[in-house]
Structures are given as C-alpha cells and as structure tokens.
Specification:
Bound molecules: 4'-deoxy-4'-aminopyridoxal-5'-phosphate
CATH topology of the largest domain: Aspartate Aminotransferase, domain 2
Radius of gyration: 22 Å
CATH architecture of the largest domain: 3-Layer(aba) Sandwich
Helix content: 40-55%
Strand order of the largest sheet: 4-10-9-8-7-5-6
Pfam families: Aminotran_5 (PF00266)
Strand content: 15-25%
Structural class: alpha/beta
Catalytic activity: (sulfur carrier)-H + L-cysteine = (sulfur carrier)-SH + L-alanine
Number of domains: 2
CATH superfamily of the largest domain: Type I PLP-dependent aspartate aminotransferase-like (Major domain)
Shape: globular
EC number: 2.8.1.7
Largest sheet: 7 strands, mixed
Function: Catalyzes the removal of elemental sulfur and selenium atoms from L-cysteine, L-cystine, L-selenocysteine, and L-selenocystine to produce L-alanine.
Distance between the termini: 45 Å
Protein name: Cysteine desulfurase
Length: 406
C-alpha cells in the first residue's frame, strides 16, 4: 500500500486553513504532530458516551471507561511488542516518564559515586532529570560525544563504561538533527557489562517500528502527541524485574493496596506507578492514534517521509551558504539548517509570514548547539501529511529570506 496523501490530509482538519492569507504548511512535526479526526472523535466519545472515573467503580460507565483505558494499555503493549501489559505505564509524556525512571530507579539503585551515561545530542528532558540526581544522590553524568555528522562516537561510549556505570540513557532519534542512533549496538554493549539501558523514543515511535523485546532495552519511553495522539499522555515500557524493585514515583490513590497510619502497602504493576486519576481520555486518544498509524503502516509512513526528506535536501542544498546540521547516514525526516549569518529566529519569523511553520532555536538541546557553536537552527520536520508542493514553497521561502538578507 502506498500513501494516499489527499485522503490523509482530509483526516487532519487543522491543515485546511490559511495563515497570513497563505495556505498553512506545517513543518513542526518533531515538536508536535496534528491529530486526525479518528483521534479527535475517540476523545469526543469518551466525554459524550462513557466518561467516568476508572477502576474500582461498580457502575456501568466506570466499567466501560476502565475497559477502554486497559484496552489502550494493551494497544500500547502490542505497538512496542512488550511481553506484558503490566510493563506499560501511562505517564503525561516522555518528560514525565524519564523523571519517573530517574527518580524511582535513582532512589532504589543509585548511590554516591555511581555514573549515568547520556549523549551529547539528548533533549533536555534526558539530561536535567539526571542532573537533579547528581545533586540529590551525588552521582556523575558522563556524556557520549558526537562527530561532526551528528553521530554518536561509539568507541568513546565504550571507554566511558566502567563498574561505576549504573544506567545508559540515550535517544533513539535526535529531535534536533534527526540522527537515528545505533541503539541495538548500545544496548548489547551495555548489557555485556551488566548495565541497563533506557531509550528515549519520543522521536522514534512515529517513524520506525519499535520492538522492545528485540531491542532488549530495559526502559523505552515516548509521548502520544508526536504520534498523532493527544497531548498530556505518553507511556513507557519497563522490564518488570526493574519496575517491581523500584520505589513508587508519586503517592496517592490508585497506587496503593492498603493505607493506614501505621504503614502503606503498594499496588501491583502497573498501578504502583500511576497515582491519581489517570488521563483515560488521553489514553483512548493514544490508542486511536496507534490504530491510525497501524492502518497506514509505519513502513509506508517512513518511506514517504524519507522521500520528502530527500526531495527537500536536494532542493535546499542548492541554496548558497546553507549549512546543514546532522548529516548522519541513518536519519529520520528532520532537516536542521542555517543560511549564512541569518539568525534562525529571523528566518523562522519571515517564513511564518508565508504560512510556513518551522521551529527555530535550540530545540531543547542546548549542549548540542554548544557542540556546533551556534545559537540554534531552523528545523523542518516532516509528517505523513506533508507534500512535495509544500516543500517547494518552503525552499522558495528560504531563498526569499536569504535574498532579503543579501
Ligand atoms: N525527548 C525527545 C527526543 C524529544 O524530542 C522530546 C520532545 N521534543 C522530549 C524528549 C520531551 O517530550 P515531551 O515534551 O512530550 O515530554
């Protein structure tokens, strides 16, 4: 099956609008993707048909809502091929998932002098939670450097491993450069040294098929909103051997078995890590997004996005003084660039006036920008609903702005 772009675009009502009198062309998909009507309708149905607080309810609506929430968990389980549904924990997104793991894994397993390895191309949300642990626990963060193409230097990674290393935490795909990291190799190497690995899949689940059993990662985290799902919901997979030992993250309803002032016992997985009323409408929306992606086929989506990427790269490359960041061999459909000395913010603001939505700045990856010694980049990231005609407009827009700045 190939991609029927006109049919797909009809699923995304938000695309059908003008910005400053120009048709909207949205290239900010790595920040968040738009939602198809199938997702919007699924959330709508929760509130129009069966909204009710989940678990423990004896009445009909509560049971229907609980079932929908737990079905969504199974959907996520199948999506990443996790062995068990109770190894899938719902969170608000990638950021909360990493904070949960840092906090709970850190509380249970880390002591002063231990080391965590991340990489130079991480999003802040895979840096700062570990830095907070540096302060709280006296651990040290080690960083895998990248080469000029934006690829992890694996030989340096191996040098960083020691008996002090307690976890490796790296992105599957870089949000700022699009680099697809060799995570299977990283996991195999870390495991050969008995070190668990967490993968930040925020930029990956919408582009590549993730199989956590095949990867054998210990944790895999992602957000719903970049996967055509709603905001405020995400999930992570964790091997039950870790989750069972880890301290809870937040306390409250749902995560307990018994509470008394003499002492509290905790619920079993996955509920131990889901304190409070969860975002069940979000989970249902996320399940609808997974269905949407599955129906199109991730392989088809990826092939189409690669076509868009290569088309854009070919055309953009002709622009004088354009500098690309992230020229890895293995790359997702993200293009990060600057033209001459034009500040990315100026480029983005002027493109916006042409109806072209790009992201500019450091992309929550300031250490990466420091590596390239730049304040930021212009980033165009493609989704399944983008077209070559839109890319033509983007290229024309970049040329116009370049000429404007001489
Ligand atoms: N990691 C990466 C690689 C990301 O791209 C993002 C989102 N830009 C995050 C983590 C954080 O995701 P969220 O804001 O959905 O929690």
């Amino acid at each position: 099956m190939s991609i029927d772009i006109q049919k797909i675009r009809k699923d995304f009502p938000i695309l059908n609008q003008t910005v400053y009198g120009k048709p909207l062309a949205y290239f900010d998909n790595a920040a968040t993707a738009h939602k198809p009507v199938q997702v919007i309708n699924a959330i709508d149905e929760v509130y129009t048909k069966y909204n009710s607080n989940i678990h423990r309810g004896v009445h009909h609506l509560s049971n229907v809502c609980t079932q929908a929430f737990e079905d969504a968990r199974i959907k996520v389980q199948q999506f990443v091929n996790a062995p068990n549904a109770h190894e899938i924990i719902f969170t608000r997104g990638t950021t909360e998932a990493i904070n949960l793991i840092a906090s709970s894994f850190g509380e249970t397993f880390l002591k002063e002098g231990d080391e965590i390895i991340v990489s130079q191309l991480e999003h802040h949300s895979n840096i700062v939670p570990w830095q907070l642990l540096e302060k709280r626990k006296g651990i040290t963060l080690k960083v895998i450097p990248i080469n000029d193409d934006g690829e992890l230097m694996l030989d340096r990674f191996e040098e960083l491993l020691s008996d002090k290393t307690k976890l490796v935490s790296v992105a599957h795909i870089s949000n700022a450069l699009g680099t697809i990291n060799p995570i299977k190799k990283i996991i195999t190497t870390a495991h050969a040294n008995n070190i668990p690995v967490m993968i930040d899949g925020a930029q990956a689940v919408q582009h590549v098929k993730v199989d956590v059993q095949e990867l054998d990662c210990d944790f895999y985290v992602f957000s719903g909103h970049k996967l055509y799902g709603p905001t405020g919901i995400g999930a992570f997979y964790g091997k039950e051997k870790w989750l069972n030992q880890m301290e809870p993250y937040q306390g409250g309803g749902e995560m307990i078995q018994t509470v008394s002032f003499e002492g509290t016992t905790f619920n079993e997985l996955p509920f131990k890590f889901e304190a409070g009323t969860p975002d069940y409408s979000g989970a249902v929306g996320l399940a609808a997004a997974i269905d949407y992606v599955n129906n199109l086929g991730l392989k088809n989506i990826a092939a189409y996005e690669h076509e868009l990427h290569d088309y854009a790269m070919k055309k953009l490359s002709d622009i004088p003084n354009i500098q690309f960041y992230g020229t890895a061999k293995e790359k997702a459909s993200v293009i990060s660039f600057n033209v001459g000395n034009i500040h990315p913010f100026d480029m983005g603001t002027l493109l916006d006036k042409m109806g072209l939505a790009v992201r500019t700045g450091h992309h929550c990856a300031q250490p990466l920008m420091q590596r390239y010694n730049i304040p930021g980049t212009v980033r165009a990231s493609f989704a399944v609903y983008n077209t070559k005609e839109e890319i033509d407009r983007l290229v024309e827009g970049v040329i116009k702005v370049s000429q404007l700045f001489g």
